[in-house]
Amino acid sequence: MGRNNLTLLRRAEYSKAAFETLSELGLSGTTIDKVAERAGTSKTNILHYFGSKAQLLEMAMRYAHADFAQDVRELLVRSETPWERVYSVIEGNFSRAYFKPRLAHAWLALCAEVPYRSAYQRIQSATHKRTASNLVHALGRITDRKTACQTAFSLSVLIDGLWVRCGTTPDGISRDMAIGQISHYLEAAFPGDAERIAAKARIAEINSILNPH
């Protein structure tokens, strides 16, 4: 394995360990020592690849967002209609692997730092832009441009809000409940749309095959 590949592998491995540590111990409890312990390496080795705790946590945030983006992409490439693309974004943002209280806690801990860290701001801004772009592109083939933009914004706010609720409620909320809330909003905005209802079912089935756990 080349040196560059090894570096990428180690950085990904330690970013994952940092996010998992954050999900269990919170921001204040996440130290380089704790991340090193989880990753089975030394503090010196962690610092070799990241330089500081701040850089390590930035990469932990990138790691989590990259996984969400991958889930969305896997569903989008299998989508055949605009409504299926909409539900690909929705399903992908409520990953079975991530939409759990302890992982929502980690996400909230990182998001709380967004106003104070320009790197976090860039990550969050890129994520919001990608979500908006995917939704507006799909919705623009269903309705007029103004409504598409308004609906995309509402969906983005709903997604963030449901993650906040999951992370701030003792027992969290289930992904089925979260997706149900968004479907309730879409039913009110586009009542009785047979194509939408069929798309929801098909994408849910595809996602259950791609991500069964």
Query: Could you list the spans in which at least 5 consecutive residues all have pLDDT below 50?
Result: none
Helical content (DSSP H or I, runs of 4+): over 70%
% residues in beta strands = under 5%
Mean pLDDT value? 90
Helix count equals 10
Shape: elongated
CATH fold assignment: Tetracycline Repressor, domain 2
Main sheet: strands, sense, barrel: none
Cα distance spanning the termini = 31 Å
How many domain regions? Answer: 1
Q: What CATH architecture would you give?
A: Orthogonal Bundle
Write up what this structure looks like:
This protein is mostly helical. It has a single domain (60-210), classed as Orthogonal Bundle (Tetracycline Repressor, domain 2). Helix content is 79%, strand content 0%. It has helices at residues 3-29, 32-39, 43-50, 53-76, 82-93, 101-111, 118-139, 145-168, 175-189, 194-210. The mean pLDDT is 90.
Quick structural summary:
The protein is mainly α and 213 residues long. It contains ten helices and no strands.
Features:
mainly alpha; Tetracycline Repressor, domain 2; 213 residues
List the helices and strands and how they pair.
Layout: H1 3-29, H2 32-39, H3 43-50, H4 53-76, H5 82-93, H6 101-111, H7 118-139, H8 145-168, H9 175-189, H10 194-210
Helix pairs in contact: 1-2, 1-4, 1-6, 2-3, 4-5, 4-7, 5-7, 5-10, 6-8, 7-8, 8-9
